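Input for the complex:
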Amino acid sequence: MSGKPNFQIPLEPERYELTASPVYRFEVDRREFFKFLGAGILIVGVLNNAHAFQESGAGKRPDESLPKEIGAWLHIGENGAVTVYTGKVEVGQNIRTSLSQCVAEELHVPVSKIQMVMGDTQLTPFDMGTFGSRTTPTMSPQLRKVAAAARDLLIGLAATEWQTDRKRLVAADGKVTDPETKRSVEYAVLAKGQRLTQTVSEEAPLIPATQWTVQGQSSPKVDGREFVTGKHRYPSDQKLPEMLHGKILRPGSFGATLVSIDAHEAQQIPGVTVVHDGNFVGVVAPTAEIAARAVSAIRTEWKAEPQPSNKELFEYLKKNATEGKDPTGDASRYEAGSVEKALASADRRLQQTYTVSYIAHAPLEPRAALAQWSGDNLTVWTGTQRPFGVRSELAEAFRIPEERVRVLMPDTGSGYGGKHTGEAAIEAARLARAAMRPVKLVWTREEEFTWAYFRPAGVIEVSSGVRDDGTIAAWEFHNYNSGASGIRTYYDITNQRIEFHPARSPLRQGSYRALAATANHFARESFMDELAHLVNMDPLDFRLKNLKNERLRAVFEAAAKKFGWGRAKAAGRGFGMGGGFEKSGNVATCAEVAVDQKSGEVKVVRVVTAFECGAIVNPDNLRNQIEGSNIMGLGGALFEAIEFENGRVLNGRFSRYRVPRFSDIPVLETVLLDRRDIPSAGAGECPMVGLAPAIGNAIFAAKGVRLRSLPLVPNGLQAG
Amino acid sequence: MAQVTKLNVNGTLRTIDADADTSLLSVLRDHLDLTGSKYGCGEGQCGACTVLIDGSPRRSCITLVGAVGQKQITTIEGLAQGDRLHPLQEAFLEEAAMQCAYCTSGMIMTAVSLLRANPNPSAADISHSMEGNICRCGTHPRIVAAIQKAAKALNHSMKESGQ
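Predicted:
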């Protein structure tokens, strides 16, 4: 096996991100399409196999076994309106804006002229979901191709009309122009009376990033005005005539089964319907208040097995680890050279254990759904990152064909990887079927904290041998339960053994922004700091000595320069760094912390992040994402942890679960490295992975205390 | 149970029919279809439901409609003057002080009352006043910048109008 790890693979083995997808061909009935859209021009973009391969996350499937799929379509109406259809969804990452920029660039129309229809299973092509930082690397090129094909088609129509050579015509600002004759014609005129369709599958020539004029520029949030005026309708704001409100009765603990139920009193409340179906108990009522009152009037008895608590969590995960292959079939082990030999001959050796707690996404908009049945057809408006996945869940739950289910995803109050599932959609649909009226269900904050899912907790063991000159000779890294994302090291180490050990999780766990990359980077980059101190080297020099990758070196150097790495620090202050590679982005983070001598309170006062994700599509939105990643990451780094006991969450509300607030926010400085020669990668996740180790290392620099558990300081440092 | 039949919202006396112990947030959202105020926690901890009652910021999720009486309620929907946005709304757009924007209404309403009480707040003043409002996307520094920008615009327009 080669000693040089190839870490730049498009997908790290990952078990929590994805669920199996229905792989099928989406048939487009073109006549139906024009009936719905009106006349004009329709461009259908077919995903090439490589895209389908990446998007479905089907890691081991050979390319040729996948059918071609449609990625997006674009319609130009007789009035010149440009409508783009994509299964991707908007949860605040601003892809409605960045994808519009891609189309505007290639089609040569202003961003404001483009309407994006997103995440509607009836109108948009199938899409696995919006996660894994895949929108920019996969959907952007799709839309660019589709838009470029539309532009070429329009030029062709004008050339035919004018009986001239298409090569001399140019498209700009929604028009095709002949520079020699000065004739020009608007797209709307060209589209008039047409029923033209074109399928795009081959690699169409796109405008190179070096010549971008719309992309690469900051473009304000599309529909921003709707949001600042309160007009935008989130899933929880949806309404229908005759709508009723639903509420679910939750068991007292996870995995409980219903033993007995007495709903007599609740059923006496006017307008209330109680729905009891196996372990499902819910009510429908004219208002949310009455629904809540009815639920509290139902007496139930539940039976559950004893379950572990957060106090014994890490022992539990180690004890319940499954050895060998990851059951999902992903590669979970990497080995190169001989770790044993290298360890034996190293000058110094170090072994440490790191832990990460379960944390909650706590999206400010909790799960919400509005469900409506019309005969056997079901329509659900809900906030989810996987509308097509939720459609499958609904079809399965109600044993109806997927064609009878429509899921619509209004732009939603965030997700962070926490809204991949359709619990509220299924619950609302079950209640609506019983009530024979549309039913809205909005989870309470406590429900969102308890009955969604968590970022996996984990135990990570690292051991290494170094030579006195700072060369890392051996590297062994074991992750129990938290996940394989970002598990491979980007440092050049000849002898390594890296393994992910799935375990039985006491809590329901799933995707979370950056996934296990946060945990794995925390362990790796904290350990790098420890090794640097072991060989008396500056942590930056030590990293660079063991790092060949130019892109990663560039961000470390850029962050250190901006931060002023190596300058003198005040008493009680400490500097730390962390960084890495994830989802095709490169990040380095430097943090300064201040530790209060009396109270032991740790405050992160300044964070400098250098980030590079290829060609930048929208610089201001990229900065926004990087700032947001750091602030969200601050919570998991410093104080967020789910406390649980015997199948119950003990701190499932904002008064008991601390999230970052204004006074926690450090000065954030961002250095963007724009690589127009490298395809754009997504940026919603990678920027957060360097923060936790940077803070931990800074605390060590300030006080000499080495913290190896996330969260680092839920109760501050010990005073003194 | 006592019923509430009238509510002063955004300068208009609205007719409602709600139990006095219904939360103001539910009345605004479900009875009056003013969905700009958001549910985020139900315990007054996140600020997404913030409205002004006689000019003071209040958490509508823990305010009972029966306790409001004839006081003036202002929600995010009542902030713009026709098509003219409030300077805070403008500033939030200019500073891109939002991602998912679910917290935005509550942020803006809290900031409206802050700027009335303190027309020239420092970054620390803003941070202190906004502490009860949660943004999970992490746009806090932009929100602070937007509030400062709006403060300047408001002070400028007050000078212009000779106040």
